[in-house]
Amino acid sequence: MTTLPEERRRPGRRRPLDALLLLARPLLLVSFALYQLEVRRNLYPRDTPSAAFEGVDPVRLLFIGDVAVSGHGVLSHGLTVVSRTAERIAVDSGRGATWTVVAEPDLTLAKLVARREIGAAGVEVAYVALGIPDVLLITRPERWSRDLETVARRIQSESGLRACRVVISGIPPLSDFRPIRPAVRRIINRQVDRLNAASADLAASVPGLIFVPFPTWRIGDMYIKQAFSWRTMHDAWAETLASVLRA
Prior knowledge:
Order of helices and strands: HHEEHEHEHHEHEEEH
CATH class: Alpha Beta
Number of domains: 1
Helix content: 40-55%
Protein name: SGNH/GDSL hydrolase family protein
Shape: globular
CATH superfamily: SGNH hydrolase
């Protein structure tokens, strides 16, 4: 029997939290505006992107995401979560890999749903690594789950392959990566947890969907900032994403 999160078992308990998030919306909208400004000013790859690791029958991949999939924080495409994931899959499979990318630093699920095409023709594995903008815009879990299912089913339909898998990545603990006031931090963390729980529930109920939590740099409640860099983040996330295909 599937155990549902407490929020879903007791719908009445959602109301105080929803009210709190509604009151916090102005604060998070300010955080979203600052986030947009920050990610557009920061580093991104400057070299020519590659989209293939040669092989006899390359695994066809699709990466959809916001800031990290855009290559935030590193200067080479070879260091991004996209390239590092594809490289691991190419080696693990022995087939090589090719990939396409759909990414914008402020991409939301709603914007993705509004696209006419996602670009998943022939894709064997699609990675969806979205959520930071949706956290800051306080997207409700019900809306998140509905839009995520729409995107996943469209990917599978566009793929044309019955075995197409959609890997949904957990949303990063974004309050760890930038200075945020404690009160706002608690709200953001709660919203991250809500959307991740919705993603995990959806993946458990829809064939071909896989949910994988975001890797951590924590020991207990302590965040090991000395261990963090954007390069290590991309690499650790890539290892986590690629590992789900080894099971």
